[in-house]
Amino acid sequence: MLKNDLLLRAARGEETERTPVWLMRQAGRILPEYRALRGRLSGFKELVETPELAAEVTIQPVDALDVDAAIIFSDILVVPEAMGLTYEMVEARGPLFPETIKTAQDVARMRVADPEEHLGYVLEAIRVTKRALNGRVPLIGFAGAPWTILAYMVEGHGSKTFSKARRMLYTNPALAHELLDKITRTTITYLQAQVEAGANIVQVFDSWAGILPPDHYREFSARYIAAICDAMPEGVPVTVFAKGAWFAVSDFAHFNCRTIGLDWNEDPRLVRAAIGYDKTLQGNLDPCALYGSREQVQTATIEMLRRFGPQRHIANLGHGVYPDTDPDNVRVFINTVKEFSTLARQGAI
Ligand code: CP3
């Protein structure tokens, strides 16, 4: 039994006494306790692959920030690794794949991973986290959307354009579909296993959605996300966060998901006008708004809450919190959501 199930009730569209709030990338470098633990280790992967440590940093923001959910500490890139493509996390630079996908042989070499065998460390981290959380807040499981995972597997590292990955969609669409299909099959059993291990809700991150034109987005991304949503167990809410894909929100409205994540370029009022009230919306304060003064953070947060309205909203940023954000301003954001949304429900403002 969960002591605080606000997030799940909001996702299911039930009325809540206030708006739930958490932050993408809340477990990470904004917290001094994360940096301290991380500094004692060989690197990011040691943290991700050691369930007790991953559980510890998953719970840090629940203790330090009093958010309404924990998100399992891991990375979207564990999926390509489980399929046979190892990643490195280069200090201060980001992910790097020493080998990339170029040919049909490369795709043929990729396996559809078995969650227990190849991603058992994430599932164990979920089990340890659930025990330690003891029902305080729901635990969010996650995976990357197949398109975003393909983008890293083909490009090999972060990129402004992902032009190698996008080139494949034009020059060898059949190969792209073959890889997307393997990633999708891996992701489905992986997310199902996360739920079995204890995740209460799952989020699909399509971080590079916004670089595709709408027709490519439908063909190479949205349909695979739809397949993932369809495969999730009954009663487990799914959140689709496709950064930059404002053009696809009306498609998501017909998916088997409960929540649609909005980045900070999107206006929730326009989204509501387009899709109605069947889905919960999550987001979408500009992460840079947290660089302002305390008063500016409060004002921006209240404006955001007004734009979403009181129900069917999960407050968050429009993307992950930036590592050089002052945790005190994160607390101002969280407390403003809690206080303002409570008063708004009571009709006080
Ligand atoms: O708190 C949480 O949100 C949970 C943990 C989490 C991480 N990565 C930990 C992490 C989650 C949900 C992710 C998802 C992820 N990873 C995405 C999708 C979300 C998004 O931001 O669009 C993407 C694209 C990745 C790939 C990735 N991992 C990149 C590009 C980088 C380098 C950039 C950076 O922030 O440093 C990472 C590394 C990473 N993943 C860190 C953390 C805490 C920082 C590394 C460190 O601590 O050394």
From TrEMBL:
<dbReference type="InterPro" id="IPR000257">
    <property type="entry name" value="Uroporphyrinogen_deCOase"/>
</dbReference>
<dbReference type="InterPro" id="IPR038071">
    <property type="entry name" value="UROD/MetE-like_sf"/>
</dbReference>
<feature type="domain" description="Uroporphyrinogen decarboxylase (URO-D)">
    <location>
        <begin position="140"/>
        <end position="156"/>
    </location>
</feature>
<keyword id="KW-0456">Lyase</keyword>
<comment type="function">
    <text>Catalyzes the decarboxylation of four acetate groups of uroporphyrinogen-III to yield coproporphyrinogen-III.</text>
</comment>
<feature type="binding site">
    <location>
        <position position="152"/>
    </location>
    <ligand>
        <name>substrate</name>
    </ligand>
</feature>
<keyword id="KW-0210">Decarboxylase</keyword>
<comment type="similarity">
    <text>Belongs to the uroporphyrinogen decarboxylase family.</text>
</comment>
<dbReference type="GO" id="GO:0004853">
    <property type="term" value="F:uroporphyrinogen decarboxylase activity"/>
</dbReference>
<dbReference type="InterPro" id="IPR006361">
    <property type="entry name" value="Uroporphyrinogen_deCO2ase_HemE"/>
</dbReference>
<comment type="subunit">
    <text>Homodimer.</text>
</comment>
<feature type="domain" description="Uroporphyrinogen decarboxylase (URO-D)">
    <location>
        <begin position="20"/>
        <end position="29"/>
    </location>
</feature>
<dbReference type="GO" id="GO:0006782">
    <property type="term" value="P:protoporphyrinogen IX biosynthetic process"/>
</dbReference>
<comment type="pathway">
    <text>Porphyrin-containing compound metabolism; protoporphyrin-IX biosynthesis; coproporphyrinogen-III from 5-aminolevulinate: step 4/4.</text>
</comment>
<feature type="site" description="Transition state stabilizer">
    <location>
        <position position="75"/>
    </location>
</feature>
<dbReference type="Pfam" id="PF01208">
    <property type="entry name" value="URO-D"/>
</dbReference>
<feature type="binding site">
    <location>
        <position position="207"/>
    </location>
    <ligand>
        <name>substrate</name>
    </ligand>
</feature>
<keyword id="KW-0627">Porphyrin biosynthesis</keyword>
<feature type="binding site">
    <location>
        <begin position="25"/>
        <end position="29"/>
    </location>
    <ligand>
        <name>substrate</name>
    </ligand>
</feature>
<feature type="binding site">
    <location>
        <position position="319"/>
    </location>
    <ligand>
        <name>substrate</name>
    </ligand>
</feature>
<feature type="binding site">
    <location>
        <position position="75"/>
    </location>
    <ligand>
        <name>substrate</name>
    </ligand>
</feature>
<keyword id="KW-0963">Cytoplasm</keyword>
<protein>
    <recommendedName>
        <fullName>Uroporphyrinogen decarboxylase</fullName>
        <ecNumber>4.1.1.37</ecNumber>
    </recommendedName>
</protein>
<dbReference type="GO" id="GO:0005829">
    <property type="term" value="C:cytosol"/>
</dbReference>
